Amino acid sequence: MKPIVDVSTAPTQYPPVLKARQRLGKYRVEKKIGEGGFAMVFRAYDTIEGIPVALKVPHWRHFKPDLVRALRQEVRMSAGLDHPNILPIKNAEFIDKTFVIVYPLGEGTLADRMRKRLSTRTALDFAEQMLSAIAYAHKHRVIHCDIKPDNFIMFPNSTLRLADFGIAKFAQGRRSVRAEGTGTVGYIAPEQAFGKPSLRSDVFALGLVFYRMFTGHLPEWPYEWPPAGFDRLKVAVPGDFQKFLKKALSVDQHKRFADGNQMFTAFKRLKPTARRHATTRAKKRAAKITAPTDWRTLKIKQFKREHGKELALKAVCRRCAGPMSEPMLYCPWCGDHKKVYAGETSFPKRCGRCGRGQKLDWRFCAWCYGSKLEPETQREYSDVRYEARCTNDKCSRKELMPFMRYCPWCRTKVRKSWPIIGSRDKCTRCKGGVVDEYWDYCPWCGKSRRGR
Question: Which among 104, 122, 139 is the end of a domain?
Fold first, then answer.
């Protein structure tokens, strides 16, 4: 039989915090791996059995007779629950005036695992193990009262074990029991916060853990349905499973599952459908990823990598969906004439004739032969995009940006043949820079490049 602590052996003074490499009977302390409000958890090595273990040691400042009685209750409750998903106690005794509860050492907690991506199928497997543990505890009339991801310990083969029965209570039939409002903020049922936990309180806490596993969001008071993250839930699980969680998270405890056994029965009925739903979604994602990409898509992706930044490809042709830049008058992929530009612009205003961007101090549209503009300011704005100069000697500023067709200061037609960096190709009609490796049409004059 597992040893049970005797309160009469409690020391009057409690020793200081354990340190690394300190010996405690047959256990050699290695390092602290966790800490709660009332106790610390250390990784240690059992020098007799030759295995690593976890030591739970109460904080010395809390070590009073009431705490000793609570620890004895935890040990006795855990000793009476023999289940593969409930963490067993290996030992519990005073060693060198230090009270120690010894557990098998896990690989971490569910909280640690939830910081990484969790597939729906894995979440369903975890949910089944958690429910199995709670259903077993409820069958023995034990209310855990502190269900949260940190209290589920991970073991090899993705096995979960429920731990920490420190504030657990024995249920009195279906009724609530009186207790202080203990528990963990964020995972505590409303009635438990008022000191009246019941078996339904564990159901509510499990619902919160499940919702977070499937959506990444933890519902908050006042727990109105649907909580944040519901869009993710609708994608992850089918409608019946959504109703299952809604019932578990009902603020009115009488509308929830009566206990873990009833909740577990409902879950086992819904799990096959939920797994098929998850499998179908996974297959669709895989098919989308592995679907053969057509040559045109590959061609456009490569073009964007090579010339996307230089050409500022912020627009898409409505006819063929090919990428375009603001100055282009024709789609280089399908040859469609773009008299009016409707894409994104980085300029503060647009030309009323061609829709292309304008700066506040321009007097004329640099892209079309539109009417004279009224500058909105007399201030002269500089711009890193000005790379050339107007050939008109009488021009006031002469600054030009790549691919301009008209000087924005004097309206003189730009005769310069704007090259495209990385390509030596030029249009035989307008002499503008083109990329024959990718384009079928000249974006400046619309001439077909197919026959060259």
Answer: 104
